[in-house]
Design brief:
With 286 residues, the chain is an alpha/beta fold. Helix content is 40%, strand content 20%. It is built from eleven helices and nine strands. The structure holds adenosine monophosphate (AMP). Adenosine monophosphate binds next to α2 and β5.
């Protein structure tokens, strides 16, 4: 596995790979890798000739009050995990390599970046869109891999690709979970043992809500949201940001969903000091 630290070197390396007619896959991450990340790398390794994994804790997607400084980092451990799961090139730039002191440009996606998670983290998706655009420009990958764990992010990135004509196909991989059902996340490191065990209620809520919709033929959005809210309220010390059902394709929130429609249940909140998100796709019964 080759390690690259500068955009110039990455660009030139990718130019050669593309000139050789090889399929290039990109897996952008913020590091502190877990099986959610390595499952993306393994998937990319199956589809592509060359896999580039990037590790960069992107300051633009953190608000000043958020956890940029304390975000978990362990580059030695990441190096081994990235290598063992099939990375050919590991891109680990310094902050000043990605954002020079006089950098002024931000990429801003519209409505999709402003709703739901965007209401709670208004800076977040512009930060993601900016760093993803920079990585796409440096590598021009055939395929880029993102996790369903960050469902809204996958829609924002697909919109970015469509609107800015990136010649890249976005592949979305399933959510990797802990044994108790909690979605894997680098931030799970912040949880105490007790919180870790209690946090399984997020996934349980999603599963129960899916069952509630499917068996009761529930189509009313406020009913679905209220059901999720009730369940989450039983989780002590969990500060709910949102528990919302929306159309899976564009996150619009009609009062009633149509029979046969694909929807997504989106949850977010803070357990103690740790922000957790999760989601589940559900088909409204016909
Ligand atoms: P992050 O390092 O948290 O920015 O995540 C990098 C990529 O890994 C994103 O596309 C995430 O959606 C994906 N990812 C993070 N956690 C998981 C998970 N539990 N399952 C699948 N993909 C994940």
């Amino acid at each position: 596995m080759k390690v690259i630290k500068t955009i110039d070197e990455l660009f030139n390396e990718c130019l050669k790979i593309r000139a050789d007619g090889k399929i290039l896959g990109l897996v952008p991450t913020m590091g502190f890798l877990h099986t959610g990340h390595t499952s993306l790398i393994e998937k990319a390794n199956k589809d592509c000739d060359i896999v580039i994994t990037t590790i960069f804790v992107n300051p633009r997607q953190f608000a000043p009050h958020e956890d940029f400084d304390s975000y978990p980092r362990d580059i030695d451990r990441d190096f081994n995990l990235a290598k063992d799961s099939g990375t050919d090139i590991l891109f680990t730039p310094e902050q000043k390599e990605m954002y020079s002191a006089n950098s002024e440009t931000n990429v801003s996606v519209g409505r999709l970046a402003k709703v739901i998670e965007g209401e709670y983290r208004p800076h977040f998706f512009d930060g993601v869109a900016t760093v993803v655009s920079k990585l796409f420009n440096a590598t021009i990958p055939n395929l880029a891999y993102f996790g369903q764990k960050d469902y809204q992010q996958t829609l924002v990135v697909k919109k970015l690709v469509e609107d800015l004509n990136f010649p890249t196909k976005i592949i979305v991989a399933d959510i990797a979970r802990e044994e108790n059902g909690l979605a894997k996340s680098s931030r799970n490191k912040y949880l105490t043992d007790e919180e870790f065990s209690k946090a399984s209620l997020l996934n349980q809520t999603l599963n129960n809500t899916k069952q509630f919709i499917e068996s009761g033929n529930i189509k009313d959005r406020t009913n679905i949201n209220a059901f999720m809210d009730e369940q989450l309220k039983t989780l002590k010390d969990f500060n709910i940001d949102y528990a919302r059902a929306a159309r899976a394709k564009d996150l619009t929130e009609p009062s009633h969903f149509e029979a046969g429609e694909n929807i997504v249940l989106l949850l977010a909140g803070t357990l103690g000091k740790t922000r957790l998100i999760d989601n589940k796709l559900v088909k409204i019964p016909s």
